[in-house]
């Protein structure tokens, strides 16, 4: 079978997969309920699509390995990459995330979930926020491993790390030192981190993924939220202490 036929079959499989999933979602409007009831079935479907498209991208005719790639070769690799991001982000629950991230980051995510849940009094919203974080992190990892970031994007990635570290250290300081809370400093560091991340991924991710990033930063940099959790008599003092412990450990490990 030629590469063109393989590509056509791969795209048909992708359409069938989308159709099947849509039918499930029509029957069960609550997407999370579907994922909880049939997690393995959905993963198997997506994994099949991913393995097939990835096989196509690896087993192209030798002429497609020339420096000037044909349109078909590019499409095959592009489909494989897109499927890879889709299957990994599909698995982005807190438990599954532990297979992709270290224990300190996993603990930080768990505590961010608890904080968001306690503050919003909305379990689903808290779960969605953490899942959005995990999905974006996984997709960033896929893009980086495939060498798809430009030099300018990599420079912005370093700037993002520096700004995000500043935000993390500010949170630690505001918690440990009484009356040191500076909302403007923290929101500035978070907003700068947000802008850097937007620049890094704007050419690689969909609008839906970009909106996930916006929702996460929108929640955690909200001024009312920050003012509330950093009050000296805040009811969130205990969970904030756990987050600070995670941040301190991440800094010690060189992860932040």
Q: How would you describe the overall organization of this protein?
A:
The chain has 256 residues and is an all-alpha fold. It is built from twelve helices and no strands. It has helices at residues 3-27, 31-37, 39-58, 71-90, 94-97, 103-120, 123-145, 151-176, 183-201, 207-220, 223-229, 237-252. The radius of gyration is 21 Å and the shape is globular. The model is unreliable at 38-77 and 91-96 (pLDDT under 50).
Average residue pLDDT: 74
What is the number of helices?
12
Tell me the strand percentage band.
under 5%
The H-and-E topology, N to C, reads as HHHHHHHHHHHH
Give the SSE map:
Elements: H1 3-27, H2 31-37, H3 39-58, H4 71-90, H5 94-97, H6 103-120, H7 123-145, H8 151-176, H9 183-201, H10 207-220, H11 223-229, H12 237-252
Give the structure's gist in a few sentences.
The chain is mainly α and 256 residues long. 78% of the residues lie in helices and 0% in strands.
